[in-house]
């Protein structure tokens, strides 16, 4: 572990010199467990041992709970401010260091920590340590801890003993109990679980190395764990690390004398002087420290925030401006070439399954291309000219790739880990080359792309924007989400909003975009930010004060939402938000959207940031305390929500439900008002793909309700991932037919983020969507459409001169012509069955084949008649024919499914997509 940490440190030093942190890949993990039993803690010298504890902005609001537990544990401790850490000596002289819930470390601090530990220092950490740091820092912290915080658990769980024979005796002093924690991902080469969660997969709760102990929960927070549980585990960890060999020192030589006994005594800290006396200035509700300033005027709150930012503890938290990026912190299926790190049996099974799925996707794409062209897809050594596929790599047939997949578990069982990885990577590269990307293969589908503000600004004029639209049209994109409202700045000259985007000079991009889209047979949907009212990044582009809240909130500060500290910009994020409960906000936004759809002939409106900011109650990150919201809640329930703690379950759920309803009701209002003015307007929403209840708790976004009520037409979940396995895991639950009843008649269009995604990976994710019961995709964003991907799109779905079939401009767009789309897609499906039959690959008895063809023709006639002349009676006939065909299809395909189960599932999924188109058409055309 020491050697590995040093290597990571060298990378950080190297990259820091060029002002850049290298993005490291995530390691494979294997959860191994060690059993322990509940015993009383032995009497040791913990009480007379100094512990250094780190105070930072991340744990400032939790400090009261942290210090009370330290005292309950009988620990003599001293405090060091994270802001004072520059070198290894700054960590202090004590042997044991505690980082409670410290999420942000600078590169210099991480390197200093590694050097301090290499001199004999021992580390205890808790919570999502280092998770908001730069990628290189996160990697070094993982090396030091033997693993990393993966993700929060949805529900409270119980800490359990591990389930293997070897035990870590020190852990016997821990206590069982209910904890709201998170999963710690172990690097099996260094990290060893000492306790697990009572979950189905027994994920790790406490992780250790010889130099560290890592608690998988936020230590010192009342709403997370009981004080006794926290205290006992800390005592046990200190005892573990203080078991020194004879003659060893209890201090780390060369340590600085910068440790004090309370935060109030930290030098050069105007903010910290009031921390220990905060009880007289704040109201305490459970684990939440409520600042009285949130009861004051917005002006006073803004001033207080500015003052805090100038104190000894500046709010310099590195962040991702997009909360959706947190999805990528979860484990991905990464395979590191030439690594000899052990692979578990479960990992081997996952690798085998992913290769099998990839084979299925390749064969499915080859079948689609063959059915369209009438020609078989030969195995070509360089069929796909993907830059990320290594030239000269072995070329396998699909059957040979299956043999490689089947060999992975055997190689792992023999301990041939490097060979297993090499075989897997070679097979994947070979399969990527077999995608038929040199000819048309796509069916009619929603091919949408977000056209971002940066690309619009760089275009500079209608002529420049025309070149962008030419590229999109050539690529077969038929729906453009045009960024029309960003950080309260409209891209066009508005009579409702106070100011057009200053980056736009002397032209109207929205008017140009409408003309350009219509001339190319594309739909133009105005993409608007809803409740996100400003953007610190945009301020930097404009060269203005970073904390400027945007032109609307600057003029109307009472319209803002606030966190529980009275801050307009939530901690770790970069955007102030409107208060969705404020009637004036709601009226202003409705008028602005009405202006867009009436002044410009747009085809649709996309609502983005239709939520509250990202929150985490267990970390004390709470939001929604706008003036209007607090007043309305108090009128209903007789209590100010700012005084409610998450530990007050009933009241907290009422507060969460209240905020969720503000978003729900606004979507309904917008839908009614805009459709009254433009009945054929398509309304879409860009949303999080998190599980429903987790999403409601974190961002108060319940888009299932919007879909069931018929408020929206298209759901665009931001299923962003850098590998296909993770993408499919995010997208499939919502696309699958079993979820359809929860979404009414709305169509689901998964989003793919192109940033840092290699071209074969992007195409692979598209094939996942095409093989599921979906009717299209959305790409983020135009600025990331590379030349290589452009050419692939030109060939497979676009208007390139090399495409001899009909252009995408003549194809129906599913949300505009759902019945015609259903008929054309079914014709393509029949072409695949015909191709399979002609090549003697359709495994049906003569009787079964006759019945299959007869019912297939009946369905074809019903769908074609509905597409030609839609009517309620023809819709009923088509739905009945489809339902009858679907019910018999599995029986007809029983033998074929035994030989090719993936392809049969694909066919079933495509029939499911046709069913969704019929249901959408029934609602949209009011039949």
From TrEMBL:
Alphabetical UniProt keywords: Membrane, Signal, Transmembrane, Transmembrane helix
Domain Glycosyl hydrolase-like: 445-729
Taxonomy, superkingdom: Bacteria
Pfam families (alphabetical): GHL10
InterPro entries (alphabetical): Class_I_gatase-like, Divisome_Glycosyl_Hydrolase, GH, GHL10
Spans traversing the lipid bilayer: 21-39
Name this polypeptide is given: Glycosyl hydrolase-like 10 domain-containing protein
Annotated organism of origin: Dulcicalothrix desertica PCC 7102
